[in-house]
Write a structure and sequence with these properties.
Elements: H1 2-11, E1 20-23, H2 27-41, E2 47-50, H3 53-61, E3 75-80, E4 84-85, E5 91-92, H4 99-108, E6 109-117, E7 130-134, H5 139-148, E8 153-155, E9 157-158, E10 161-162, E11 170-174, H6 182-190, E12 195-198, E13 200-201, E14 207-212, E15 215-220
Parallel strand pairs: 1-2, 1-3, 3-6, 6-14
Antiparallel strand pairs: 4-5, 5-13, 7-11, 7-12, 8-11, 9-10, 14-15
Bound molecules: ribulose-5-phosphate.
């Protein structure tokens, strides 16, 4: 918890007056969003796009001015959490089911920072199940195709019911294990009709901020 908090707070130091922010989703992003709330209260002129309905509610509670993604022509900085990341900055996201909006916002942003506690930094991603967002229509056929690739797909459930994303779709979690050929999996999964997006983010952040027991560690992506 403490590691997440310091990572979230550190990331807020990159926020500048006048920015349009992309606000991530999850328990680490929570601490960053609280900091954004403080910056707004202190008079900083900020606007933000939320990557999920839960982030939108939190931002409203904190009086952070929100804009819709379709109303703006830029996002200056997106700050979000991550489920697993390797040293090539390839990551799995979507543990909270918000991967589709998170990817749209990150892709649109000029700069992306990911924040995490240190257990998220791994040699090879793939131990964490890879979430993909699928259209409800035809999802059974999508799952069969994923089984043919031996991805061990399971449909995500919450409280006994199928989990529904903010976009009205389903999440299928792929239990791939290690080692994971990132590009091969990306191409195979995205090639299946009915798959809307994967939680695989390939080298798409500028820096990561890792909370550790001895403070924050910042790793720049120089690619
Ligand atoms: C939600 C996400 C989150 O960013 C990811 O699951 C990390 O969450 P947390 O900071 O709670 O560990 O991708 O879809």
């Amino acid at each position: 918890m403490e590691q997440k908090r310091i990572a979230g707070q550190k990331a807020a130091e990159y926020i500048r007056d006048g920015m349009i922010l992309g606000l991530g989703t999850g328990s680490t992003a929570y601490y960053m969003i609280k900091e954004v709330g403080k910056l707004v209260q202190s008079g900083m002129n900020l606007k933000a796009v939320a990557t999920s309905k839960s982030t939108e509610s939190l931002a409203k509670e904190l009086y952070i001015p929100l804009v819709q993604i379709d109303e703006i022509n830029r996002i200056d900085l997106c700050i979000d959490g991550v489920d697993e990341i390797d040293k090539h900055f390839n990551a799995i996201k979507g543990g909270g089911g918000a991967l589709f909006r998170e990817k749209i916002v990150a892709d649109f942003a000029d700069e992306v920072i990911w924040i995490m506690h240190e257990s998220k930094l791994v040699d090879n991603i793939g131990a964490f199940p890879l979430p993909i967002e699928v259209l409800p229509y035809g999802h059974t056929q999508v799952i069969e195709k994923l089984k043919e690739y031996s991805f061990s797909p399971t449909i995500r459930r919450k409280g006994g019911n199928i989990f529904i994303t903010d976009n009205g779709n389903y999440i299928v979690d792929l239990h791939i294990g290690k080692p994971m050929d990132v590009n091969d999996i990306y191409n195979k999964v995205n090639g299946i009709i009915g798959v809307l997006e994967t939680g695989l983010f390939i080298n798409s952040c500028k820096r990561i901020i890792v909370g550790t027991d001895s403070g924050t560690k910042i790793i720049e992506n120089c690619d």
